[in-house]
Amino acid sequence: MLRSIAAFGLLGCLGLATFALVHHVGTAALAAPGPPVAMPAAAPVDSFAAERDSLMKDVLNHIAGREAAPAESVFKNIKMLKGMPAGRIPRIMNMGYGRSLGVRCSHCHVAGHWADDDKPQKQIARDMMALVDTLNNVMLPRIKNLKSERPTVNCTTCHRGSRKPATNL
Asked: What is the third-level CATH fold of 44-159?
């Protein structure tokens, strides 16, 4: 049964721990006296989604006809996503980063000056991309007995819609 659940991807630590506890000791152990088990907080509401969607559409309109070209030939200052089709970049920024961290585009960028490196958050995002790449392509494949064909982490794995990573579930 654990194999079939893991096939859907990596489960959150709390979810996996809860499943394992119920699976191995039964639900009666969960009702035992002791401190209450903290449940993970719901993901925060993404109040910046409409703003990001609008900016994403503006950028996509600006690059219309060049969506399939490599990102570095359409955008300036592309360092981490070279070779990626340019049309995917605004979507990755919106859904992959903005939504995962629950932030505006201006968290990392100066609005209208997307290529500028004026904000440290932009370099932090690049460094985090390198971390995720190392985890997914080097570290996770080395873990024996994972029940997933291609285990993957991404920004949402830790951030869960908040700027600050969820470190204390």
From this structure: Photosynthetic Reaction Center, subunit C; domain 2 (1.10.468)
